[in-house]
Amino acid sequence: MDLPKEDSLDQRFALLKRASVVVLTVGAGDDISTTTAIQLGAAVAYDKPIVAIVDQGVKMPAKLAKLVDVTIYRGDNPQKLAEAITTAVLALCKGNANEEC
Fold it and tell me: What are the chain's domains?
C-alpha cells in the first residue's frame, strides 16, 4: 500500500484496518522498513491475510514466513507476478462476504 508521506500513523492504521488483504514486499539485502513493520503488525493485530512478494534468492525470515498466508517469489515476468498476486488476493478474499476485495 503506497501511502503519502504526510499521512499520519492513525490514517495508516485506518487504511490497514479496512484492507481485505495486506501485501508486503521482502527485497534482497533490505532491512524491513518502518512502513513494512507497521503494515505487518497491523495485519497481525487486525487478523488480515498477508501476501508476501519476495525477491528471487531471498530467504524470508522463519518467523515472518509463519505469519504469511501466501508467498510469491518475484521473477523476471511482471505479467506473471501480477497474475500471481491477483490469484492470491482473490483466493484469500473468497468466502469473506463482509468485505470487498
Answer: 12-93 (3.40.50.450)
